[in-house]
Amino acid sequence: MEVLSGRIILRPSDPRTTIRFYRDQLGLAVAREYPGGIVFFAGAALIEVAAHMDASGAPPGTSVLWLQVRDIAVAERELRVSGVAITRDAKTEPWGLIEMHAVDPDGTEIIFVEVPEDHPLRRDGRAPA
Q1: Residue ranges of the domains in the chain?
Q2: Cα(10)–Cα(56) distance, rounded to whole angstroms?
Q3: Has this prediction a pTM greater than 0.90?
Q4: One-character DSSP codes across the chain
Q5: Which residues have CB under 8 Å from 7's CB, separation 6+?
Q6: Does domain 7-54+61-122 have CATH number 2.60.40.2550?
Q7: Which residues have a Cβ under 8 Å from the Cβ of 110 and sit 6 or more positions away?
Q8: Which residues, in sequence order, are CB contacts of 24 under 8 Å at separation 6+?
């Protein structure tokens, strides 16, 4: 199986509030809209707010969104200006990534990540030619 892209599907309790959060507060661009939902660009990922999927019978979610940003300090300022509550301030994790946490209106945890210049994720792991 070859996977070309991924998507996180959210089943919100209040679709309008969730759409407003991702569109207006986080400022994500719309990839497409369809009857009963909307899909946002989020870097190399897609986030779909599926208003047509009833969340009332769903078990409490354990979904986590991992969103890489270029500069965590800039992201933090923009989020705070937009009224997004930061639930954990940015800090460098033992694995070398700088991470900051927030939550969406349904309590889905969002981890904003900056990959430092010297982190192994920034290195070309291929053998030299």
Answers
A1: 7-54+61-122
A2: 13
A3: no
A4: ------EEEE--SSHHHHHHIIIIIS-PPEEEEETTEEEEEETTEEEEEETTS--TTSPPP--EEEEE-S-HHHHHHHHHHTTPPEEEEEEE-TTS-EEEEEE-TT--EEEEEE--TTSGGGS--SPP-
A5: 39, 45, 46, 47, 48
A6: no
A7: 64, 65, 67, 101, 102, 103, 104
A8: 82
Please count the residues of the chain.
Answer: 129
Residue type, 3: V
d(CA 62, CA 48): 16
Average pLDDT for runs of 10 along the chain of length 129: 66 87 96 90 86 53 75 95 96 91 89 87 74
Say how far apart CA 39 and CA 69 lie, in whole Å: 19
Residues paired with 111 in a beta bridge: 66, 101
Q: Which two tokens stand for residue 4?
A: 């070309």
